[in-house]
Amino acid sequence: MLSIMRNIGAAATALITVITVSGPAGTVADPRRAEWRAGYRVPDAIPFPETNPYSQAKAELGRRLFVDPILSGARDRACLTCHQPGLGWADGRARAATLAGSNMDLRTPTILNVAWQDGPLGWDGKFRDLETVARTPIAAAGNMNLKLVDAVARLKADESYSAAFAAAFGDPAVSAERLDQALATFQRTIVAKRAPFDRWIAGDEAAIPETAKRGFDLFNGKAGCAQCHSGWSFTDNSFHDIGTAEGNDIGRGRLMPKSVALRYAFKTPTLRDVELRGPYMHDGALPDLAAVINLYDRGGIDRPSRAREIKVLHLAAEEKSDLLAFLATLTGEGESNALTAPLPVDAPKP
């Protein structure tokens, strides 16, 4: 009799657990959910490299340079032209626009949360680090079209910039390296605003709907999205062939020709504010997030370089809807203030 009562008690406890974690559609929460949630907590501080530490004056200088068309040949283009806060720090285009009005080969990548994008940057990883990125679009004939030596000369000729460089670096000397460091310092302050997802991670169960919670389970479980889009910034900072790219652009494989796995591999982007950043993929080939989910559901092109994580998923329509509901919770609440808010004296927190 005692054994029977224990069995009944265990069954009742299990039933209560199922009822507690079930959503309105009766779907039971994945038992791994609590463990997964622990991996998405907001970090304590923004990382800055020892070779380019944070200072308020340097970040202010970088912000000024970011919005100033002085860094373009015709003084009609700035970093802000392609990296707009209202468009998730991208430009809303399938592919970036050239000076002539045609399309570049690739979509403008977001610089949101770039402080956490360690390792090579760019869709194909052609930039060693953030400090080496800016000089390429500045000098590119189809982009800002200003030789770096001329950019430095312009800044030297401006007394207010000499004063700003002196405040940031201790003396008024202007150099390409200091230009890079100032821009990189400001860009590391461009951090995703707290989103409903973050409030849920912090313990507010009402912050996101049950559909999004089921989508979170799918994202980390059956759909396998978190194998690449991992952690607080939703990227592993690596390169993968997800079975989409075709043609002459083979991504990271162009720079690493001996690697079969890196052929057609492109960098995993952050998913923060992803709703704001369509169209999608490195070349803007997919118009919306529903199309992105459908592509992953199909598994992409089967070829030797395709990442082992990519496979046919056979997602139901409701599961796709739950994934979309989850992705919607990653949009930050409130407008980004990186262009206007006072920058902190000490290294900022996200």
Automatic annotation (TrEMBL):
Sorted UniProt keywords: Heme, Iron, Metal-binding, Oxidoreductase, Periplasm, Peroxidase, Signal
Top-rank taxon: Bacteria
Broad class of enzyme this protein falls into: oxidoreductase
Main subcellular location: periplasm
Listed EC numbers: 1.11.1.5
Domain Cytochrome c: 210-331
Keyword Heme appears in the UniProt entry: yes
Record keyword Membrane present: no
MF annotations from Gene Ontology: cytochrome-c peroxidase activity
PANTHER family: CYTOCHROME C PEROXIDASE-RELATED, METHYLAMINE UTILIZATION PROTEIN
Protein name according to UniProt: Cytochrome c peroxidase
Origin species: Methylobacterium aerolatum
